[in-house]
Amino acid sequence: MTWALASTAIVIVGVVAALAWFERTGPDARQVALVAALAALAVAGRLAFAPLPSVKPTTDLVFLAGFAFGATPGFVVGATAALVSNMAFGQGVHTPWQMLAWGGVGVVGALLARPLGRRPHPFVLALVCGLCAWGFSAFMDLSVWTQTAPGHTLDDLLAIVARGVPFTAAHVVGSVLFALAFGRPVLVALERAERRAHVVWLAPADG
Questions:
Q1: pLDDT confidence of 4, banded at 50, 70, 90?
Q2: Are the beta carbons of 113 and 72 closer than 8 angstroms?
Q3: Residue 152 DSSP label
Q4: What is the pTM assigned to this prediction?
């Protein structure tokens, strides 16, 4: 089996396992609707900024989804956003890699929810979103290396990373600016929606 097939197979198994885990958790209709709505928003954000290569609010939205809803919903938002938006940008072997990368951003958001607190400082939020954008780009550079590099050497990887520096920089800067401009308001709105999605049934009072 070649590097390209083996690496992509591993990525696909990871994506399928994560989606299956979300299904196994038994999300109710309200949670599914929230995840679908946010995934649609992430797709719309990517499409809206298509004329600006690598500048997109998708990474921020996926991070905030994981931050507000948890790891599995955050992963599903990221994976779905990649799959659906690529219906416009073009499907290919890169799609499962993007699904795993953006899904991973959602998981990172969930993992950082407690350390950062429910209302992180805007500059902290922007810094974290910028790091997530860099991580996404680095993962996609790795995908290019596994798919196209003839020798899969360190020099090949460094060359791919160097060629991608302008796109990575645009992604990071765009994510930082989006987070500074909209991060806190979007997070507040998501937390409000998440609270409203949980209904607690109380037993009737005696009497």
A1: low
A2: no
A3: -
A4: 0.85
Dump pLDDT digits (tens) for 142-193: 888 888 767 778 888 888 889 889 999 999 999 999 999 988 888 888 877 7
- Which two tokens mark 168? 């990575």
Helix axes 165-178 and 122-148, enclosed angle (nearest 10): 150
SS3 call for 179: helix
**All structural domains of the chain with their residue ranges:** 3-195
pLDDT at 203: 52
The residue ranges of DSSP E strands in 67-129, in sequence order, are none
Residue 202, pLDDT > 90, answer no
176 burial (CB, 10 Å; 0-12 / 13-18 / 19+) is: buried
The answer for residues whose C-beta is within 8 angstroms of residue 41's C-beta and 6 or more apart is 61
Give the CATH number of domain 3-195: 1.10.1760.20
C-alpha–C-alpha distance, residues 180 and 162, integer Å:
27
